[in-house]
Specification:
Number of domains: 2
Strand order of the largest sheet: 2-1-3-4-5-6
Bound molecules: iron/sulfur cluster
CATH superfamily of the largest domain: Cobalamin-binding domain
Order of helices and strands: HEHHEHEHEEHHEEEHEHEHEHHH
Radius of gyration: 22 Å
Strand content: 5-15%
Shape: globular
CATH class of the largest domain: Alpha Beta
């Protein structure tokens, strides 16, 4: 328990501020690189974010490092923290961020920018990086860092692209620096030499980091199980990263290129391990466009033959209306959960303009199939 009881009694969702979730990692900080991992939105949103969970797992898998989480508090909690002059604390140990080496933001949405400032302020840190001396180093990763200009004044350095590899290199450089120096400029200079790290004022160009083989990329098999309801409260396996399409309005479709897949064998292994380690009775197969997964029929068979008989409920978001076969719906028919399609525009002309490549015929064909299968 990190905050006083009487304070938690006065907020709407006290469970968001107490930590202690199932599968929580709590480490002795002695001699470790201490990273406060911040998600600039509420607990319910942040705990549903796969990237945040992956980075938490990678850092805590290292013997020499630890990651502890913090989220943007809801306005009731923020008001009370300010009123009582209590800093925002990490959920794992209840320590102030000032005791950490690195404060790392995971930024998925531009609308969260103002919450970055709120978190910095509630942690007792100067908002402007030019006014911060010493540690913690403030870094940012996640989808929004491919276009970091609006938040450059507040962040010391950015990790651009897939974070799985670059986070380890950042920790290695930090460790080396801490052994030999106390000069923050030297640290920033060393970090700027890592591929995929952008240090404002030092880096000239930066190349987005891309995990080449998603099948071999680290993936959390013991994710935290939230002790309150969150947006996506289920086991999650990312089956594919990137999207084969090029819908003109879609930021994710461009930022996560190229398309990379996990093999069906890996998906099965991860599903088994995550379901066993969490006790979840629902699993989501995540990607930008699940119906473009190259072994969709194999995945459907796995769902039908292994998951449904074990009473595991399945969610497959992001189905394209034009790529699903009768066989697929027949195979997953027993799930009978809501299906979501996104034709995006009501006329063929507009769908063509945004490069959606879906015809009216595709839409009605899919409606026919799903209604025939009982949805
Ligand atoms: S299919 Fe979906 S994820 Fe892919 S580019 Fe279009 S909108 Fe984006």
């Amino acid at each position: 328990m990190n905050y006083p009881f009487d304070l938690l009694y006065r907020v709407k969702k006290p469970a968001s501020y107490i930590g202690s979730e199932y599968n929580l990692v709590k480490k002795n900080p002695e001699g470790k690189v201490k990273i406060a991992l911040a998600f600039p939105d509420t607990y319910e949103v942040g705990m549903s974010n796969l990237g945040f969970s992956i980075i938490y797992d990678i850092i805590n898998s290292r013997e020499d490092s630890l990651a502890e989480r913090l989220f943007a508090p809801w306005v009731d909690m923020e008001g009370l923290l300010r009123e009582r002059k209590i800093p925002l604390l990490t959920l794992e140990s209840g320590r102030s961020v000032k005791e950490f080496d690195i404060l790392a933001f995971s930024i998925s949405y531009e609308l969260n920018y103002s919450n970055i400032l709120t978190i910095l302020d509630l942690c007792g840190l100067s908002i402007l990086s030019s006014e911060r001396e010493g540690l913690p180093l403030v870094i940012a990763g996640g989808q929004c860092t491919t276009h970091p200009s609006p938040i450059i004044p507040f962040i010391d350095c950015f990790a651009i692209g897939d974070g799985e590899e670059v986070i380890n290199e950042i920790i290695d450089v930090f460790k080396e620096w801490k052994l030999n120096s106390r000069d923050k400029k030297e640290l920033l200079l060393s970090l700027s030499k890592i591929d995929g790290v952008y240090v404002p004022g030092i880096s000239k160009t930066v190349k987005r980091r891309i995990i080449k083989d998603l099948d071999k990329a680290p993936y959390p098999t013991k994710p935290l199980v939230p002790n309150t309801e969150v947006i996506h409260d289920r086991a999650v396996v990312e089956i594919m990263r990137g999207c084969t399409r090029g819908c003109r309005f879609c930021e994710a479709g461009f930022l996560y290129r190229p398309v990379r897949e996990r093999s069906l064998e890996t998906i099965k292994r991860l599903s088994t391990e995550i379901l066993a380690s969490t006790g979840y009775e629902e699993i989501g197969f995540l990607s930008l466009s699940a119906s473009d997964y190259s072994n969709l029929e194999g995945l459907a068979r796995y769902i039908k033959e292994s998951l449904i008989p074990s009473y595991i409920s399945v969610s497959i978001p992001s189905l394209r209306i034009d790529t699903i076969s009768d066989e697929f719906y027949e195979a997953i028919g027993e799930i009978k959960r809501g299906l979501t399609f996104a034709p995006e525009a009501g006329t063929q002309r507009l769908r063509d303009v945004i490069n959606k490549n879906i015809t009216e015929e595709d839409i009605f064909r899919t409606i026919d199939i799903v209604s025939r299968e009982g949805w």
